[in-house]
Specification:
Arc Repressor Mutant, subunit A, sequence-specific DNA binding, Jelly Rolls, repressor, DNA-binding, 8 strands, Homeodomain-like_sf, single chain, HTH_AraC
């Protein structure tokens, strides 16, 4: 699973509206909440946001959205070029009412960078630029890479086993024997409680893990093997379907940004 090791940061994480910082691998922010909305853009690296509803992962070129009042924690994987934008309460209603992740296109990227790279020169300029960001997000489909957390103790026992070893190729029946529940019961719980199949949940967990490994320079083949795929082609297909680009393209984008 994604590492939970805490490392001392070389610089403090962004704390003010329209700010940015490079966050080192492994740094985490403990659970907290905000009175206003918050956008966090990972221009490079990976940001994982965890709430009571599960974990949202934002690889490079994604932006996370957390509405006001949601308690959440952040973890960073790879050196993350982090840009933080606070959204005033009166604008939050323009966006979805739950945490999510959105793809960042060229216009949205430039607007986010401008909000976090430069001081406001003309009064009201930042507010107008923020309105552009809101308009872009309202027109962008969610790409949440969301991994919901279970409440049922039997289901949580299974997901804990998978998180401890994402590459484990045990069947749901095997996991059920360890958790004290039947395969049929667990299959039903995955659908009713988590809204997805066992296969989909485990695949998403593996993609979370793969993103962290790729951001640290692992090869596509080594990442595929580590995350439980028997061959790189199957991994590439699953990664592309969930992330929206191949793992090779994802790594190339990371290298281009760092250079």
């Amino acid at each position: 699973m994604l590492e939970t090791r805490r490392s001392a940061p070389s610089s403090s994480p962004p704390a003010a509206p329209g700010s940015g910082a490079r966050i080192p691998h492994g740094f985490q922010l403990d659970p907290h909440s905000h009175a206003e909305g918050q956008l966090v853009y990972a221009a490079a690296g990976i940001l994982a946001t965890t709430t009571e509803r599960g974990t949202w992962v934002a690889p490079a070129h994604r932006v996370t959205w957390t509405p006001p009042g949601f308690e959440h924690a952040h973890r960073f994987y790879g050196t993350t070029d982090t840009r933080l934008v606070t959204v005033p309460v009166d604008l939050c209603g323009e966006l979805v009412a739950h945490p999510s992740v959105f793809a960042v296109g060229p216009l949205l990227r430039e607007a986010l960078l401008a909000l976090t790279d430069r001081a406001e020169v003309r009064p009201g300029a930042a507010r107008r630029l923020l309105a552009v960001v809101i308009d872009e997000l309202a027109e962008t489909s969610e790409q949440s890479l969301h991994l919901p957390d279970p409440r049922d103790d039997r289901l949580r026992a299974v997901t804990d086993l998978l998180r401890a070893d994402p590459g484990r190729n045990a069947t749901l029946a095997d996991l059920g024997r360890a958790a004290g529940a039947s395969e049929r019961t667990l299959s039903r719980l995955f659908h009713t409680e988590l809204g997805m199949s066992f296969h989909r949940w485990r695949t998403t967990l593996r993609i979370h893990h793969a993103l962290a490994q790729l951001s640290r320079g692992w090869s596509v083949t080594d990442t595929a093997m580590e995350c439980g795929w028997s061959n790189p082609s199957s991994f590439i297909d699953a990664f592309t379907e969930i992330v929206g680009q191949t793992p090779g393209r994802y790594q190339a984008d990371l290298r281009n940004h760092r250079s």
